[in-house]
Amino acid sequence: MTSFAVTKLVAAKDLRIELRSRVLINQVLPFAAITMVLFAFALDQDDLLVRVAPGLVWLATLFSMLVVVQRSFAVEAGDGALDALRVAGVPAQGIYFGKAAALAVQLLVLETLLFAAAFVLYSSRFDGAGVFLLITSALAASCGLGLVGTLYGGLTTGTKGRESLLPLLLLPVVAPVLIGATRATEAALGVGRISMQEGWAWVALLVTYALLFGIGGSIGFGPLVDDTA
Amino acid sequence: METGFVILSYVATFGGIAILVAVMMRRARSMSARRPPEDQPWT
Amino acid sequence: MSGPTSTRATRAIGIATIVGLIWFVAFGLFLSPDDAVQRKGVRILYIHVPSAWLAYLAFIVTAVSSAAYLWKRTRSLTWDRLAGASAEVGVLFMGITLLTGSLWGRVSWGVYWVWDSRVTTTAFLFVTYLGYLAVRGLGGSHEQRARRSAVVALLAVLEIPLVHFSVEWWRPLHQQESIAKGKLQNLMLFSLFVGVIVFTLLYVWLVMHRQRVLAMQDALDDRGLEFAIAERRQEASL
């Protein structure tokens, strides 16, 4: 079975599990929405909110991502499914890209709803030209986050005390995505003094990030999840 | 006034290193008491 | 100051380090002149700059050792322990860099922190190191620890440039800061040079000792395991 076929199967499986269990919809989205509300309480200034909305949306995404990543591997831990797949000789790369794709899709759903929340809660406005930039940057960012999340999620899954390591490892690594996605979103929404051109430059960074971690992750995922010596 | 910060830098740096060295040495001593010499190929 | 991890080499380096240290404090604090602009504050740089260099060197050593471990032909737990020891010393020096940098900033600009690319990337590197050390503590067999942390170290090599570029674009290094650390003359340059020598010796000394301590720890763990197995066997045969 080719790696690509495995990727499609694993991605479909993960998404199907999510559709049936609705963990993203029932637990993560409310968490993200509450985060958005709490930001408003903390920042306390309405005109400031629209200015920092892009950053807040991506922050809420990153914090929620921690839960989604852990969920992504919790479904494997149940019956030792991941180990069973590896022992059966399923290529690690296929599993990696499959899970990363499913994670990216879930993150895109999350981001869509968070931007909608920003529209309502922070009075963000989306104009025609910016929407294209917005969608592209969200796609690029989600790919990068999916790849990195799956990689470090695989490392920290499993036995006692490992899951709490995920934030410490993952949040620093995704800093470039936070910076790039926020700047691109600011350009797309027309807040802050950043031009559309610059916004597209940031998208280039996001794409580079995704490419580099795609390569690095496809090599590193296997050794990381294989708990044999 | 800056002298204070300068002194602080030097004291914190070398004091910190000294403390860590002392801790490391003590751990090494307590560990070596518990095992035989062939585990130390550098001696 | 000799102990179970000492050898002639470490004693020699240790003595050289202490001698160097005396020279360093002499020049750094007394014999070199105050700077025209920064006055006494420049003395903090004699610590700050060398420790930054050594922290980066330590990181490189960790990365190279990790690669050496992963490459089948040179696979040996010694590389893993070297990577770990170097990372620990690197965290120490990185902490010193950040602390002295902060104090220097307070003296020169009045603020303990600036969000420019160099400071931010350094802080980032520090946190990444901490994550690496945390991964080393995850448990499992020595080989599992070695492989896991080696992959994490190499991923860090991948991510550091990405972080550096994005932070650099975000907050470019301002002209004024390069000028502030600009020209150092003669005795000041010499103090800096002594600082580099001393910190390098310190690094080597610390890593040698620490690496041996880790080796002892691993050996103890192995013995502990053998001992426990032997005990079980005894129990079974009773």
Supply the key terms.
heterotrimer; B: mainly alpha; rod-shaped; C: 238 residues; mainly alpha
Give the integer mean of the pLDDT values of chain B. 82
Structural class of chain A: mainly alpha
DSSP, total strands of chain B: 0
User: In percent terms, what proportion of residues of chain A is strand?
Assistant: under 5%
- The N- and C-terminal alpha carbons of chain A lie at a distance of 26 Å
Give me the strand/helix succession of chain B.
Answer: H
Estimated helix fraction of chain A: over 70%
Mean pLDDT figure of chain A: 89
The largest interface is:
B-C, 27 and 38 residues
**Assembly state of the chains shown:** heterotrimer
Distance between the termini of chain B: 49 Å
Overall geometry of chain A: globular
- What is the total tally of β strands of chain A? 0
Structural Rg of chain A: 18 Å
Number of domains of chain A: 1
% residues in beta strands of chain B: under 5%
Evaluate the radius of gyration of chain B. 17 Å
Describe this structure in words.
The complex is a heterotrimer of chains A (229), B (43) and C (238). Chain A is an all-alpha fold. The longest helix of chain A is centred in the N-terminal third of the chain and has 32 residues. The radius of gyration of chain A is 18 Å and the shape is globular. The two termini of chain A are 26 Å apart. Helix content of chain B is 72%, strand content 0%. Chain B contains one helix and no strands. The N and C termini of chain B lie far apart (49 Å). The mean pLDDT of chain B is 82. Chain C has 238 residues and is mainly α. Chain C has seven helices and no strands. In chain C, helix 2 packs across helix 7 and helix 3 packs parallel to helix 5. Chain C is globular and about 80 Å long. The interface between B and C is medium-sized, with 27 and 38 residues.
Question: What's the short story on this structure?
Answer:
The complex is a heterotrimer of chains A (229), B (43) and C (238). Chain B is mainly alpha-helical and 43 residues long.
